[in-house]
């Protein structure tokens, strides 16, 4: 039993060491900015351009993360491979996240129908009392879904900083839906990104690439 616990602890520390580069923090911060673009409702009316720009932004963000891992982290820390216990944990995470993603899809459909269709939106307002009431409910549900999803991911991936990031992301979603002002989630995204950049700079200084002959990169 002790050997099994020690193995789990060693594996956990090995995983957490890969988060020293701050790239995950930067990725989450940029995703918050992308969500602001997706959720923003212009006075002229919601445009498919919002969805296109958000998708492009998320794709570029994930690409930047993967390139950073390959070009910055991998040369300094090498490739970390894990056993069956970690794979089982990842499968459980996939199942739990699948449920939350399905719920979020339903929420997005509900939000789209309610906020972007005047007739359905009026019906929802009558049920909930007023437009501010419907926005408050949708904002609370949206922030809860995002926050809980990030908490689940952080737990299963042993990303401890993800717990406070989940609170910031939930707050960003709430403010974006309720106030419809991209400035707030963008500022919150910066609050997440800046510590990630600091960690990245420290990581580069702590783990320089040593070339042949003992020279540092």
List keywords for this structure.
mainly alpha, globular, 217 residues, 81% helix
Can you walk me through this structure?
The chain is mainly alpha-helical and 217 residues long. The chain has one domain (2-206). It has eight helices and no strands. It has helices at 2-17, 23-39, 48-77, 84-116, 118-128, 131-157, 162-179, 183-206. Helix 2 runs antiparallel to helix 8 (183-206), helix 4 packs across helix 5 and helix 6 (131-157) packs antiparallel against helix 7. The chain starts with a helix and ends in an 11-residue tail after the last helix.
Query: What is the N-to-C order of secondary-structure elements (H for helix, E for strand)?
Result: HHHHHHHH
Oligomer: single chain
Task: Report the sheet with the most strands, covering strand number, pairing sense and barrel closure.
Answer: none
Fraction of helical residues? over 70%
Task: Report low-confidence residues grouped into runs of 5 or more.
Answer: none
Distance between the termini: 43 Å
What form results from the Cα inertia axes? globular
* Overall number of structural domains: 1
What is the SS-derived class?
Answer: mainly alpha
Radius of gyration: 20 Å
The overall pLDDT, averaged over residues, is: 77
* Count of distinct strands: 0
Helical run tally: 8
**Beta-strand level of the residues, as a percent range?**
under 5%
